[in-house]
TrEMBL record:
Residues 19-76 are annotated as: Disordered. PANTHER family: BLR2978 PROTEIN (PTHR34595:SF2), BLR5612 PROTEIN (PTHR34595). Residues 569-886 form the DUF403 domain. Residues 136-520 form the Circularly permuted ATP-grasp type domain. This is Circularly permuted ATP-grasp superfamily protein/putative alpha-E superfamily protein. The lineage of its organism: Bacteria, Pseudomonadati, Pseudomonadota, Betaproteobacteria, Burkholderiales.
Length: 898
């Protein structure tokens, strides 16, 4: 298909947008359902995996419905389905010519919002921007009604299976479920047998992956019950795409999502154990999980606290959240963590993601977990083949939403039936992702050669229970907007639809009117984000009134507002504290490195005392290796070592190491940072590491390397200034921010105190160049020259960088600010300091007469002792804050709340 060009855009004057779309968009691949036109494209060859094959032993499907009409072969101008025609008619006055602009706007919005998907869960690798197509998948009311009814029925069925398996186990006794698929599945948790969750409801959130076959009907491909992902991404998709097509969104009567999320939260709150209002948290594996963005996003949207395992603790069979104010009871937990990692005491002992004792709290009925642990075995594809009989047994109903015909090869008859048909099927692992079992990506038999098919058949014969074979379904293809061929064009892509059912009360569920559409990569048949696929918004149309419920409360009460003030967890507080410290540490390292390179590259010779001070400061702050020759003896060797160490991410103290630590600390509290702040942090590290690599690859004169290094440091300094501005002026002044600020000022106090003390001990402040270098390191050069003009004596230096309460780089200002922030953190009354604040010296007692000895040979002992006291106090306060607020090993182990 040729890309759109000006002549095609001009054709809008002669054709309607719908007719133009029909002429520009190629049909779906042969044998696939064409979502754009609402009919199947004729198959050029016999389709694989359809009626000619015998039915499986346990067939989840009813007889295939009648096939819809097929488009005439080669006709690319077949009329569009009515809902797609309506969509294109609502593009507005500029029509197709405006689509490239909207695509660019969408890409910028995703980037600016920081929407990411970490494909490889690599802590050191860059996160991949979320991939979202410009066009939504549109589902008309009649089609959605069938999906909704079938989804609700399946969730009821799966919930009753869980109740039986963890209760009387009649299904196992009657042979309706093979024991190997239950007791032999690591996802079955024996520790949960006999548990009866609140409302006798096991499933709170469930997802079904659906595909539309050539027959035009939706089929179940898989089911997700453990911790289904997508509830956050689909919200972001909706906001992004509705903004690009506001006119079409209104005209097509697309159902909104907020009412279902609201009903889900109300259902969880009503079924939580005692606690008014109940405290609900969302448990995430952490920032390096593939879908961490949506964990933070959905927690923020629902107004609940995002926590990791080490934020929680169990005491007396009750779950608590560790906060700065102490232990706060937790009544409900939405988990985004696989069951095996939930409790290292009873499940995987090597798990650092879960909470010791959590299962005991669940069994005691003191915490509601969504979903109740133990549902993982339902995700096995082998179970799909047994659900029709289970539906008749438990619900006395026939399944409304059929699954793809499925064979579990642990049954000999099923294995023998399917082996001759492997070339037309897909091969899946029965226990995918479970330790001790065969693990592999889904295979398409049609992509395997004869020899490979024979090899897989041999594996299936030897270990049949490890393999499940499923009918191959040529899944439907929807129109997508792609610009890889120039100005842009419409191309069909295979699509899977994930729909969600959420619990809104005891034995009551509601289907979210929308979902997450996943698109296969170009020319691929498997839709997977891990394999380079993308996503699309899902618009569900309604014939009735659009539900315009919002989570915004029209009449907020003090109690409701208090519920939305999320507590500051100890883990979040610790990461904010270190975010502040590493930001300040990076600024100090950049300033010291720039000062050193400027002085070494200057024409004026520096005094031996200044060179010794620079060498001492560079070693103290890990800017050079400890074995580098002294600066006074070998200036060029020292300079080259300093430049080489700037980008070393393995040594603490280097600029590159501090920037990486900033990014890692920020990732752990990303839900607290604005998108702009997060993007600044990511860009600063990426830009610095790129420039550092280029610098390392250059082989030129030292002077050229020094100039390039200075440009790199200047750029990094600007980026750090932007970060500091975001932290200072754009963050709410809660306890988390106070800890960030405390971290910054602890680092500043220790660095400046040690720098000034070294200057007096080594004598560098007593000559002109050393004096100017010290003032520059305190970032006070302009103020000093404006205030003192030509004076260069110790009294002026001490007055400005030690005693001046208006200079944010002076020790008095930093110390006084620290004392006040620590007092506010502890909840003291205004003006009253806590014991921890008194660990810092009181600037009100400092005087110029006491700190500056008269005479040319004064040793300034009182000043040096004060500087040493400040440095020691800074590190002591840091340790005390860690013990009191982060590890909770002091008096803060009290319980707060009811």
């Amino acid at each position: 298909m040729d890309p759109l060009n000006e002549s095609l855009f001009d054709a809008q004057a002669l054709e309607s947008p719908a007719a133009l779309a029909s002429s520009l968009a190629p049909p779906a691949a042969p044998g696939h359902f064409d979502e754009l036109r609402g009919l199947a494209t004729p198959a050029s060859v016999p389709r694989l995996g359809v009626p000619s094959q015998p039915a499986p032993l346990h067939d989840a499907s009813s007889p295939p419905p009648a096939m819809p009409a097929e488009a005439p072969a080669g006709d690319e101008r077949a009329p569009l389905a009515p809902h797609w025609a309506d969509f294109f008619e609502q593009l507005g006055a500029e029509g197709f010519s405006d689509l490239p602009r909207r695509a660019v706007s969408l890409e910028r919005q995703i980037r600016d919002n920081g929407v990411t998907y970490n494909v490889y869960a690599d802590a050191d690798g860059p996160q991949r921007p979320w991939s979202l197509d410009l066009f939504p998948l549109i589902v008309p009311p009649e089609s959605w009604a069938a999906i909704e009814a079938g989804t609700l029925q399946r969730v009821r069925l799966l919930d009753r299976i869980l109740a039986d398996v963890y209760g009387p186990q009649q299904l196992l006794a009657e042979g309706l479920l093979p024991s190997a698929l239950v007791h032999g599945n690591p996802g079955y948790l024996r520790a949960m047998h006999g548990v009866r969750p609140a409302g006798d409801t096991w499933l709170r959130i469930a997802a079904l992956d659906l595909a539309r076959g050539p027959d035009g009907h939706w089929w179940v491909v898989s089911q997700r019950t453990q911790a289904p992902s997508g509830l956050g991404y689909l919200l972001e998709n909706r906001l992004a795409i509705a903004r690009q097509f506001p006119q079409a969104f209104e005209a097509l009567h697309v159902q909104r999502l907020a009412a279902t999320y609201n009903a889900m939260m109300e259902g969880l709150q009503h079924m939580c154990p005692a606690g008014q209002p109940p405290h609900i948290v969302l448990l995430t594996p952490g920032p390096y999980n593939e879908t961490y963005f949506e964990h933070a996003y959905i927690a923020r949207y629902l107004g609940i606290t995002l926590v990791e395992g080490n934020d929680l603790t169990v005491r007396d069979q009750r779950l608590y959240l560790k906060t700065l104010q102490g232990l706060r009871p937790v009544h409900g937990l939405i988990k985004r963590l696989d069951d095996q990692f939930l409790d290292p005491l009873e499940l995987r002992a090597d798990s650092t993601l879960g909470v010791p004792g959590l299962l005991q709290a669940v069994r005691a009925g003191n915490v509601l977990v969504a979903n109740t642990p133990g549902s993982a075995f339902l995700e096995s594809p082998a179970l799909l083949g047994f659900l029709p009989a289970l539906a008749r047994r438990l619900l006395d109903e026939k399944l409304l939403l059929p699954a793809l015909p499925t064979w579990w090869c642990g049954e000999r008859a099923a294995m023998e039936s399917v082996l001759p048909q492997l070339a037309g099927c897909t091969i899946k692992s029965t226990y995918a992702g479970e330790d001790g079992h065969a693990g592999f990506d889904t295979l398409l038999g049609s992509r395997l050669g004869r020899r490979e098919l024979d090899e897989w058949a041999g594996r299936i014969v030897r270990e049949g229970e490890e393999y499940t074979v499923q009918n191959y379904l040529p899944i439907s293809q929807m129109p997508t907007w792609t610009e890889d061929l120039g100005a842009g064009h419409i191309a069909p892509r295979a699509v899977l639809l994930r729909v969600f059912a959420v619990c809104v009360g005891p034995q009551s569920w509601r289907v979210l009117p929308g979902g997450l559409a996943r698109l296969a990569a170009a020319d691929a048949q498997i839709a997977s984000m891990q394999r380079g696929g993308s996503s699309a918004d899902v618009w569900v149309q309604t014939h009735g009134e659009v539900d315009r419920t919002t989570l915004l409360q029209a009449h907020a009460t003090p109690a409701s507002l208090a519920r939305h003030r999320a507590p500051v967890t100890s883990r979040a507080a610790e990461n904010m504290f270190w975010l502040g410290r590493y930001t300040e540490r990076a600024e100090n390292a950049v300033r010291l490195a720039r000062l050193t390179l400027d002085l070494l590259g200057g024409e004026d010779p520096s005094s031996p005392a200044l060179l010794t001070w620079l060498h001492d400061m560079a070693r103290r702050n890990a800017l050079v290796p400890r074995d580098v020759p002294s600066l006074p003896r070998s200036r060029r060797v020292f300079e080259r070592a300093l430049i080489a160490e700037l980008g070393d991410v393995d040594e603490g103290g280097s600029v590159g190491y501090s920037l990486r630590c900033i990014r890692q600390a920020a990732a752990a509290v990303r839900e607290r940072l604005s998108p702009d702040h997060w993007n600044q942090i990511v860009r600063a590290e990426a830009d610095f590491m790129r420039r550092s690599a280029e610098l390392a690859g250059e082989r030129g004169e030292s002077g050229y390397a020094s100039a390039a290094a200075l440009r790199m440091l200047e750029s990094t300094s600007s980026a750090l200034s932007a970060m500091t501005g975001a932290q200072t002026d754009r963050m709410t002044r809660d306890d988390a921010w106070r800890l960030l600020s405390i971290g910054r000022h602890i680092e500043r106090l220790a660095f400046l105190s040690s720098s000034l003390a070294a200057g007096f001990e080594l004598g560098s402040v007593h000559d002109m160049s050393g004096f100017e270098a010290m003032v520059a390191l305190f970032d006070s050069t302009i103020t000093f020259h404006a205030r003192y003009q030509q004076r260069r004596d110790v009294a002026t230096l001490v007055d400005l960088v030690v005693l001046d309460g208006d200079n944010p780089r002076s020790l008095a200002w930093v110390t006084q600010t620290l004392r006040g922030r620590i007092a506010r953190l502890a909840g003291s009354a205004p003006g009253k300091l806590t014991a921890l604040s008194h660990e810092l010296p009181d600037p009100a007692t400092w005087t110029l007469e006491h700190l500056c000895d008269p005479g040319p040979h004064a040793d300034h002992g009182a000043l040096v002792r004060l500087l040493e006291t400040c440095e020691t106090a800074a590190y002591h306060v840091s340790d005390a804050i860690g013990i009191r607020y982060f590890t909770l090993t002091s008096e803060s182990l009290r319980s707060v709340g009811a």
